[in-house]
Design brief:
There is one protein chain. Helices cover 30% and strands 28% of the residues. The protein has 10 helices and 17 strands. Strands 1, 2, 3, 4, 8, 10 and 11 form a 7-stranded mixed β-sheet that branches. A 6-stranded mixed β-sheet has the order 13-12-17-16-15-14. It has a 4-stranded antiparallel β-sheet with strand order 7-6-5-9. A hairpin with a 2-residue loop joins strand 5 and strand 6. Helix 2 packs parallel to helix 6 (198-207), helix 3 (72-85) packs parallel to helix 5 (129-137) and helix 9 (305-315) runs antiparallel to helix 10. It starts with a helix and ends with a strand.
Length: 416
């Protein structure tokens, strides 16, 4: 009992020391009052709520507050300021609520001044999401978060903007980045009947829950939104491997957001208050590394045929227990190539609450299993396939990283 108490004190001290070096920067934007199209009720409220929530979680806000109703010049300026303030930061977060459109598979955020009459206007009047990602990528941050509550209906429908599609397109997450969409790629999110959208309301509540790591946080948000909307809206997450664990609040489930030790001052003593417990990065365990590799595999599986096969050549062992049969890597690659050609458009969503990971530390290998949702389509043939499937990976770690030595899965349910 005494040893456990000492260890817990040491862990608390480590977390507190770690958080003091943890610099978190966030840009929060909410656009409601559009000048040339119908206004939205909630984005301003959503942005203010998220800004307050992030401040409680230890983030420094660009402009010290939510940036509201930005026109194109001010939007560009805010992004540039964001990029400059990321120097020396550990965590970068961008949140946007408002109109967003997908044109030729590129996602654009819509400033309140936007009024395009032809497709060529878009580049000058809207903000390409990749611009924000580039600011993050070049900053040297350990973790980047992009949160888009921007999948509302296209406000410019009927203007002849060719290539415009419903909702937002899926973005491949750069290294160390997690992207969260208010709904699935290609779908439309709800603005909501309350003062906040269903997605942002769930996000603000869950961010302040101690004991949830980043993946648990967004999974919980997804479950809450799905329940609140009767299943009509399902948030989506895309992530690259993230080195370490991140918690918006403390790592202990019932830990107060700003817990400080009770100190009895003595004469002439200086009393120092502890900072909120905000560990940004801790050394990843074998299980965390295995889970991150599975997430990377799912992410890469949604890319182009060439990119995915290049990744698979590096990720697969020379021989793989492939759906119950010992198979050479070259044969596995051929099968995967046939699959991605059959389904050129692929989207997967890991149901993170179902993931189970067991590891043999002495042999440096892990088994990771769970469920995923999939949406497949072939525009050339018009065929589609969607449903839920199980998955199981065997992953072995060595000097050159993780390798997949077994892969299996089974269809659980199909939907039309």
């Amino acid at each position: 009992m005494r040893l456990a108490f000492v260890l817990s004190i040491l862990m608390l001290a480590f977390s507190t020391l770690d958080c003091r070096a943890d610099k978190r920067i966030a840009l929060v934007v909410g656009n409601s009052n559009y000048q040339s199209v119908a206004s939205l009720n909630n984005p301003r409220n959503d942005a203010v709520l998220i800004a307050d929530t992030l401040r409680k979680a230890g983030f420094t806000l660009v402009g010290n507050r939510a940036q509201l109703d930005l026109d194109k010049p001010n939007f560009d300026k805010a992004i540039q300021t964001f990029g400059n303030e990321l120097t020396g930061a550990d965590v970068a977060l961008f949140y946007y609520a408002g109109h967003g459109v997908q044109i030729r598979n590129v996602n654009y955020l819509v400033p309140v001044s936007a009024n395009p009459v032809k497709e060529a206007d878009v580049d000058f009047q809207m903000v390409d999401v990749s611009l924000i990602l580039r600011q993050m990528e070049g900053s040297g941050t350990k973790l980047n978060l992009v949160i888009l509550d921007a999948c509302r209906n296209n406000p410019f429908g009927g203007r002849g903007l060719r290539g415009t599609e419903s909702g937002l397109a899926q973005i491949r997450a750069p290294e160390g980045t997690l992207l969260s969409y208010a709904t699935q790629p290609g779908n439309v999110a709800l603005d909501g009947n309350d003062i906040n959208s269903p997605y942002t309301a769930a996000l603000a509540q869950t961010m302040l829950t101690p004991g949830l790591d980043i993946f648990q946080t967004f999974n919980q948000v997804g479950l809450q939104v799905k329940k609140a909307t009767g299943g009509s809206q399902q948030p989506w997450v895309s992530s690259s491997p993230i080195d370490g664990s991140f918690y918006f609040m403390g790592t202990t489930p019932n830990e107060p957001a700003t817990a400080a030790p009770q100190i009895s001052p003595t004469p002439n003593s200086a009393v120092m208050l502890a900072q909120p417990t905000r560990p940004a990065v801790v050394a990843p365990s074998l299980a965390q590394r295995a889970t991150a590799l599975v997430i990377e595999d799912m992410t890469q599986s949604q890319g182009s045929t060439a990119d995915f096969l290049n990744y698979a050549r590096k990720a697969l062992d020379e021989r793989v227990d492939y759906y119950g049969k010992s198979t050479l890597r070259a044969e596995v690659l051929k099968d995967k190539e046939r699959y991605v050609k059959r389904w050129p458009v692929r989207a997967y969503r890991l149901l993170t609450d179902t993931i189970r990971t067991s590891c043999n530390e002495s042999q440096s290998n892990c088994q990771v299993s769970g469920l995923l949702e999939f949406n497949l389509s072939n525009p050339a043939t018009g065929k589609t396939s969607a449903g839920t499937s199980s998955f199981e990976y065997g992953i072995r770690f060595g000097p050159d990283g993780g390798r997949i030595f077994s892969e299996n899965g089974k269809l659980q349910s199909a939907r039309k």
